Structure formats: C-alpha cells, structure tokens
Amino acid sequence: MNIPMKRTTSLAVLSALLLAACGGSDDGDDRGNLLENPQLLTTLTAAQIDSGTAASGLQAISGRARCDVQVLSLNYSTVGVNSEKTNASGVMLVPAGSCPSTNLPLVAYAKGTDVQKPRTLANPSDGETFLLAAMYAAQGYAVVATDYLGFAKSSYSYHPYLHADSEATSVIDSIRAARRAAAGRNVNLSGKVMLTGYSQGGHSSAAAQRAIERDYAGEINVAGAAHLAGPYNLSGSFKLTDAIAGYQFFVPYLVTAWQKVYGNIYSNPGQAFKAPYASYIETLLPNPTLNYTTLVTTGALPGGPNVTPNQARDAVFQPAFINDSRTDPNNALFLAAKKNDLLGWNPRARTLLCGGAGDPTVPPAVHRDVAQADFSSRGLSNVTSVDVDPQVQAAFGVGGRAPTDPTSAAFANYYGNYHGTYEPPFCHAAARTIFEAVK
Known about the structure:
This protein is an alpha/beta fold. The protein is built from 16 helices and nine strands. It has a nine-stranded mixed β-sheet, with helices on both faces.
C-alpha cells in the first residue's frame, strides 16, 4: 500500500523549517538534512506483524507486537570518504496505533553486507526491515536504518565497504535525518539513542559509537549500544590460513573498495585477482542486478555446493597477493585493515558484543572475543559479550545440536544459514534486553 504525502511546500522551505525545528549538526553544515519529503510507504498493523512473526517462528523471540509501525522513506545529506558532500537513503520506522508518539527512544541500525545496489530498507517487504519492525518498532522504539553510501538513492559512485569512518558518518547523519523527519510528523523522540547493527552493520555501529562518543557527545546521547556479529578485528582476520564462508563475496568487495579509498592496495587488478575476475571485479560489487545466488550461478564469482571457501579464495585471488597480506606487516592491505579495526578505544555507554560461536562467516573467536579482551584489558566493565550459539543449536540443530558430519546435507544447510538467518534474531533479542535497561 502506497500513501504518498501531499507536498505543500518546496523541498528547500521544508528543509529549512525542519532544520530550524531540530537544530543543525555540530559540523555547521547540512549533514543530515532531508533532501526529500519523507514518504509514508505503509503502516504495518500489529496484527500483520504478529501474523508474519508467527508464520516464520520469530514470535517466540520477538514477542507479540504492541503497536502498529509506520514505514517512512528517507533521503538525506551526508559526506563521502573525503568529506565531500553526497547523499544516502534509508528507512524510519515509527510506532503508531496503541503506542504513544512521545518520548520514543531511537534505535539507529546499520545493515549487514549487501551486494544488490538498488536495494533499500525503505521496503516493507524486505526481511531485514520486517525484523527491525518486529523486534524494535512494534515494541515502542523509533528506528532509523541507513542504506549506506552507494546504495538505492545514494549518488555516491561506489560503496566504501568496511570503511569505518564513512560507515560512521552514514549512521550519524541518519540519526540527524530521523530527528528532522520526526519533528515534521509531530513525533517526539526522547533524545536517547541506541546503536546497533548486524555483520557489516556491527562494524558500522561500533564505528558510529566511537565517533559519536569522541566527537558528537553533546549532540547525540548514546544510551546503549549492541554490536552484533561484527568484524571488529579485520587485521587479525587477514592472518587466518583458512577462508571464511562467503570469502568470494566479502573479501573481493573489501579489497576493491579499499583500493578506491586508499589507492595503494594493488597496482592493477591483475596483481590481486586471477582471470577472468581481474577484468571486471572493480565494478562488480555492489551489483545492479545480481544477488548472492546469481553472482555464483552466472559465474561472476565462484561457488556452489561443492566449492569450499578455500577453493573459492584460490579461484579468485593471486596466491602471492593473499600470502603477502598474511605475512608482511607492511603490506598495504594489512595496514588498511589496521586502520579499520575497531580496537583500542573506550566505549562510554553500556555496550554489548553478540555472536554465535558456530558462525562460519564472522567467527567470534577472531572478532567478538578479541574486541572483548581488548576492552577488558583497560578495565571497561560496561562492555559485555554474549554467545547465542546454544540458542541457535537448540532451535536449528539436529536434535538440538549442531550437525557434525561435514559431508551431510544437514551440515551444509545449518552452516549455510547460520550467519544470515539463524543468528540475527537471537542477537537482536540480546540487544533489546540492553536497550530496555537503558531507555
């Protein structure tokens, strides 16, 4: 259902009015300004949300919806990797119906890795958007979620994948945009902000927390944060001898993005990538038409049921390039990873790190546990960790346990769905427990 809002004023006047109502950013520029009148795409009723969560099995984790949820599209100003002006889009979810429209805490969410350039979270049918609606907005939280640079309505020429600083600005400016959108709809936010994100989004939300608490604490009150299955120890991940699940998607994405950001990761694509991938890899991700499945079925990237992560890695990358990143402390890729690690800072708000021990894509032993040890080494008692693997095994394992035969279909199905499907709801439930305590 589409319910477009009638425009009664120019966008310039609208932006000026909303800016006056909410105040500008501390940067003294237009970051976070609304570039379009937010559109009400639909209202998900509590009954519709309950029907969806009951059918999927999510309701046992999310609980029943307390209220309806309005789904609003956002298009807002932000900056690129060199502070150049650009834009990003996203979604705002607003509690409605039986929930009050006053003193709403705001959850700022960063999404997981996306390979589809046109995809936006401003889509009521999107599974990630529905999860946010069920877990947070239907429980009385306003939610804003960015599409990131280079996706959907963003005019940015590429997506700077796992680049901490630009991830942070995308999230920060989405908060500013949400505040302006709320003021324009007579929705009163409490001023408390909770940060969360999943997978790449866990890296993004942690980067946003670091940046806000360092630079914008007077503007944005981070009451709590929950970083879910995020790759915080990127430099450590390059030391691994075995490839993670999904390596053929995530690592080429990262390498080509960082080449665009830093310009020194390789001298030409053929130095890093094998044929035929070297001829098109720099423009492959994010893709205008292909998704994870069709990237493989069309042969754009290697993969399939009989292709191991190590085989996929070895098909795409030049072995000398990978070996040098693993062994040379002065390697450009390794040094770029060090720049984007999220270690060595001190979270101020109550902070949760969540992951499942069986995650084959973002192994907690490499990321969550290393980050927790780093924070604990400086006596930070406000940072805690949770392992949701027992819940994942109980819900999706064979007889309540993870399958152990690597040649079985059950093993492939379990670990193929672990990171993308099984783990997220349990981590979001853990996040909500933190947010309930601080809201």
